[in-house]
Amino acid sequence: MGRYIIARLGSLVFVLVAVSLIAFLLMHAVPGGPFDEKERRLPEATRQAQLAKYGLDKPLWEQYLRYMWAAVHLDFGVPFQSPTETVTGLIARTWPITIRLGLATIVVSYSLGLLFGTIAALRQNSWIDYVVTFSATLGLTVPNFVVASWLILFVAIRLGLLPTGGWGEPQHYVLPVIAYSLAPIAIVARYTRVSLLEVLRADYVRTARAKGLSERRVLTWHVARNALIPLITVILPEIPNLITGSIFIEQAFRIPGLGKFFVTSTFTRDYPMILAMVLLIAFLWGITYLITDILYATLDPRIRLSGSR
Amino acid sequence: MSTKVSSVAMAAPTSAAVRSRSNLQMAARRFVRQKLGMVGFAITAILLLVAIFAPFITPYRYDFGDLIAANEFPSANHWFGTDAVGQDYFSRIIYGVRTSMLVGFMSVAISCCIGIPLGLLAGLRGGKVDFVIMRVVDVMTAFPGILFAIFLITVIGGGVSNVIFVIGLTGWVTICRLMRAQLLTLREQEWVTAARSIGASEGAIAFRHLLPNALAPLIITITLAIPSAIFTEAGLSYLGIGINEPTPSLGKMVAASADYIRVYWHLGLFPTIAIALAMLGFTFVGDGLRDALDTRSR
User: Fold this and answer.
1) What pLDDT does residue A38 have?
2) What is the structure's pLDDT at B297?
3) Among B37, B207, B223, B279, which residue has the fewest nearby CB atoms (within 10 Å)?
4) Cβ(B97)–Cβ(B45) below 8 Å
5) Among A9, A149, A194, A292, which would you mutate to test the B interface (most chain B Cβ atoms within 10 Å of its Cβ)?
6) pTM score of the predicted model
7) Does B6 score more than 50 pLDDT?
């Protein structure tokens, strides 16, 4: 197990270095820098001074090494779009908003997903099952910004029940969380259903019934415990996704979270901000997948971890 | 998401041509029997026809704004009303569907051109080639596809061809990984050992036995890659970094409607319905194909 974790951490470091290198090179490969404005051109001397200030006049490899050295110390530089603070500061300011929205979504979607999936599996091929399966396809397929647009149109404007967007009050959570939850509810419900159905047909469940256990005991003791294990591989990897924020949801409901800054960074070619976010997300994904695999192997003794995938 | 795919092609190895045709006919019959699959097929067919014959269907030019007729509600003249600069919304939606379809098909074609050969190479050659390709795949999957697409678009800029290129470049990984996984599973099957024992060459085994059996899950994955490409295009355009003016894009129209939706509801309603229809159509077809081709799940 120890060797496995070390090997996986090694490959995570490799991926991070590769991702940062690719991102770094790509961003510098294109013409046009942050101080190349077409309209209000800076005087050449000022431009040079600005470039020197941000270290953009150094050779590329030196820029990269300096950047990575600082990044290891959680110093990602100064965002071009907001030069009065640091990238770390900007992320620390905006990420909590996204995390709160993400956590609310996780709680809502995972509990509803488990509930719907369980009901559908226990009543397989009934109308409830069909409704759940069909709604899950809808929830997975229709983009969340489309759902957001419908919610704003019908609930916020036609019915006037909730604000169309913004942030700060409890009611600002409702519509974003609904729009944001649909896809994860669908994913969790689908996998819960499949996983439960598989276990319900297993030999040991038939044995448990045959030896006269009550249905309730069979479901809680034998079915639920075994059906939940494969679900971990679906539920956990969704978490970094949800807490790094849906860019679309934040855009649709005007929420000043991390996702919104990812978009503004692309407009302003904000290298430090984009690099930091790319690294942050790659890191979170890598760690979550590692934890998922370890947990899966710990919970299911039939699975053995080998050197690397 | 598609952890099940590797187990899909358990269909009996198709050795004779007659046999494979009857398999195909059986699959077609199973597909037709599924209501949702057929509904999806109908939606997709209509959208495709609309996209192809857009110039003949649209009553107005998509890029002609009549400012006097700006922000009109749906009427006999303008079926879907007009937008803020007086462009006929019906015509813009039709051309938006055309953009979606173009991006959907072209970018998946690019993904296939990269993913299938690399997957074949990794699965058949193994060893160092496999190792290198899989490390590239690891790096590509280090963060969500949509973020990678946004990042690439930032670097190379928007526009139809760039969007197609970027989505194609982010989409090949799934196809490559599936192709490889298929080959690895199939290679261990008994009928491959049987083929080898009667003296079939490695090349014959690869192309006559492994490939045809890997085809079913590949077709499903490719079909389902189309709605995901359509989603990415709409998403990028929604954020304002995808398709450039004056080309209509459904995502862009949804974003633009946000400022007017309070009064001019039609600006928000029609493009969102069009996106939802396009996504659902292809997804239903993909799911239908999965049920028709997957002999295990029946």
Assistant:
1) 60
2) 46
3) B207
4) no
5) A149
6) 0.82
7) no
Return the DSSP state at B82. B
Q: Which residue has the tokens 């398999």?
A: B23
Residues of A (87-106) whose Cβ lies below 8 Å from B: none
Distance CA A77, CA A59 (A): 17
- CA atoms within 13 A of residue A282's CA, in its CB half-sphere: 26
Q: Is the dihedral of CA A196, A202, A205, A210 positive or negative?
A: positive
**Would you call A286 an interface residue with chain B, using a CB distance cutoff of 8 Å?**
yes
Please tell me the distance in Å from B66's CA to the nearest CA on chain A. 26
- By three-state DSSP, how is residue A105 classified? helix
Q: How distant, in Å, are the alpha carbons of A129, B28, B177, B250, B265 from that of B270?
A: 31, 33, 37, 9, 9
State in Å, rounded, how far the first CA of chain A is from the last one: 14
For residue B88, report the phi and psi dihedrals to the nearest 5 degrees.
-65, 120
Count of alpha carbons within 13 angstroms of residue B264, beta-carbon side: 23
B56 burial via Cβ count (<10 Å: 0-12, 13-18, 19+): exposed
The CA R_g of chain B, rounded to the nearest whole Å, is: 22
* Cα–Cα distance list, B217 to A24, B22, B44, B172 (Å): 36, 18, 20, 15
Length of chain A: 309
Cα B170 to Cα B168: distance, rounded to the nearest angstrom:
6
DSSP secondary structure letter of residue B297: -
CA triple B256-B257-B258, angle to 5 deg: 90
Contact at CB, B272 and A252, closer than 8 angstroms: no
Write the DSSP assignment of B101-169 as a string of letters. Answer: HHHHHHHHHHHHHHHHHHHHHHHHH-HHHHHHHHHHHHHHTSS-HHHHHHHHHHHH--SHHHHHHHHHH
Q: Please give the mean pLDDT across all residues of chain B.
A: 82
Q: Is B132 touching A (CB cutoff 8 A)?
A: no
CB distance from B238 to chain A under 8 Å? yes
Residues of B in contact with A285 (CB under 8 A): 142-144
B272 and A146 within 8 Å at the Cβ level: the answer is: yes
Cβ neighbours of A26 (radius 10 Å): 14
- As a whole number of angstroms, the distance between CA B57 and CA B18 comes to 43
Report the alpha-carbon distance of residue A149 to residue B30 in Å, rounded: 37
**For residue B87, what are its two tokens?**
């462009």
| Token duo for residue B20 | 């494979």
The ipTM is 0.79
Instruction: Using alpha carbons, select from B292, B297, B296 the residue that is nearest to residue B23.
Output: B292
Q: Is A18 on the interface with B (CB under 8 A)?
A: yes
Name B69's bridge partners. Answer: none
Nearest by CB to residue B239, choosing from A149, A158, A263, is A263
| Burial zone of A34 (CB within 10 Å; 0-12 exposed, 13-18 middle, 19+ buried) | middle
Confidence of residue B11 (pLDDT cuts 50, 70, 90): very low
* C-alpha distances out from residue A295 to A13, A220, A292, Å: 21, 21, 5
Tell me how far apart the terminal alpha carbons of chain B are, to the nearest angstrom. 20
Q: Is A137 on the interface with B (CB under 8 A)?
A: yes
Compute the nearest-CA separation of B76 from chain A (Å): 24
Q: Which amino acid is at B222?
A: I
For A244, the 3-state DSSP assignment is coil
Determine the Cα–Cα distance for residues B253 and B248; give it in Å rounded to an integer: 8
Measured CA to CA, the distance from residue A113 to residue A236 in angstroms comes to 14
B234 and chain A: CB distance < 8 Å anywhere? yes
Q: Which residue matches tokens 């990794």?
A: B122
